[in-house]
Amino acid sequence: MKNRTNRKLTLFQKNRRGNILIENVIFIILNVVFLAILAGFIYKQGNGVTVLEQSYAKNIALLIDSAKPITEMTLSMEDAFKLAKKNKIPNEEIVTINGNIVTVKLSSDSGYQYSFFNNVDATAYPDIFPKENYIIKINGYIYE
Amino acid sequence: MNKLNKSGAGKVFSVYWFAMILIIAGGVFAMVYLFYGTPFDVRELEAHVLTNKIADCVSYSGKINSNLISNGIISENKELFMENCHLTFSSIEWEEEQYYAEVDFYKLENLDNPFFSVTAGNSNWLSDCEIQENKEYKKLAKCNEGNFYSVDDANNQYIIKILTAVRKSEKNVKI
């Protein structure tokens, strides 16, 4: 009986060492997975449709406000193109300028508008090469 | 028991560990939501750009635009200031104009009273600028001020003060 207890104890002690290592590894993996999920969530929020639409619309409106006629501006919109492609939005429809309002649309059920005060005729179209650029052209002043 | 709690099993299945994870995740979620849920406020930049644009239109290369003052005489078409400066303050996006601009021309002999003033846009936002002289309030219009020296055709000297205000609070502040 005494021998059997001793044998059991020895086996348990051997398994304990193995358990400690495996359990610690699982613990570390779970922590890493948790941190990765958090990082992924933050990255996704920062590159979300709402944030990008707003920042590009305001950027373009400010560019138009400070521009003078016969100006052509090239804006790198790589992340917007990627998101639009994912959401099946044609490149020509990402940025539209209607009167003095800039609209940026990166998904079918969203869109952000921002107005500018510079009374100019402005047009926006995607660049042919490189494809991740958008061209904003200030054609001239509007005379009424 | 103590030995068990010190082991990984104690950590993995500990209620405290799950509680900690939930608190951290909740905190991060709240911070991210607050950060990205608040719109980018570009009104200060906009007001600055508007001030510069008006300055370029009022005076170019140190000479006052002859459409405004010529030989010391105020031109009759001062109301056409908006057209001369190529500004459009109305937009289908807003029911009322979201901009205000004021240009005051002071003669060097009298810096207290403006010799001539031109205003454009919604004057309701002017009071927002006055309120914020000492402290800024996010939800009120953002203002920008600039002044410079210029001369007219007859070499009369002027100090020109430009005040601009941009509201657009709904698009730039979380309301």
Write the layout of secondary structure elements.
The complex is a heterodimer of chains A (144) and B (175).
Chain A (H helix, E strand, L loop, with lengths): L1 H45 L2 H17 L5 E6 L1 H9 L8 E4 L2 E4 L7 E4 L4 E7 L6 E9 L3
Antiparallel strand pairs in A: 1-6, 2-3, 3-4, 5-6
Chain B lengths: L1 H5 L1 H5 L2 H23 L5 H16 E2 L2 E2 L4 E2 L2 E2 L6 H4 L14 E9 L8 E6 L4 H6 L10 E10 L5 E10 L2 H4 L3
Antiparallel strand pairs in B: 1-2, 3-4, 5-6, 5-8, 7-8
Notable traits:
heterodimer, A: 144 residues, alpha+beta, Immunoglobulin-like, 2 domains, three-stranded antiparallel beta sheet, 3 helices, 49% helix, 24% strand, B: 175 residues, four-stranded antiparallel beta sheet, 7 helices, 8 strands, 36% helix, disordered N terminus
Short description:
Chain A is an alpha+beta fold and about 140 residues long. In chain A, about 50% of the residues lie in helices and about 25% in strands. Chain A has 3 helices and 6 strands; from the N terminus they run ααβαβββββ.
Give a description of the structure:
The complex is a heterodimer of chains A (144) and B (175). Chain A is an alpha+beta fold. Chain A folds into two domains: 1-46; 49-141, Immunoglobulin-like (Sandwich), CATH 2.60.40. Chain A is 49% helix and 24% strand. Chain A has three helices and six strands; from the N terminus they run H-H-E-H-E-E-E-E-E. In chain A, the strands form two sheets. Chain A has a three-stranded antiparallel sheet, covered by helices on one side. Chain A has a three-stranded antiparallel sheet with strand order 2-3-4. In chain A, a hairpin with a 6-residue loop joins strand 5 and strand 6. The relative contact order of chain A is 0.15. The model of chain A has no long low-confidence stretch (mean pLDDT 87). Chain B is an alpha+beta fold. Chain B folds into two domains: 2-37; 43-172. Chain B contains seven helices and eight strands, in the order H-H-H-H-E-E-E-E-H-E-E-H-E-E-H. Chain B has a four-stranded antiparallel sheet with strand order 6-5-8-7. A two-stranded antiparallel sheet of chain B has the order 1-2. Chain B is elongated. The chains are: A alpha+beta (144), B alpha+beta (175). The interface between A and B is large, with 39 and 34 residues.
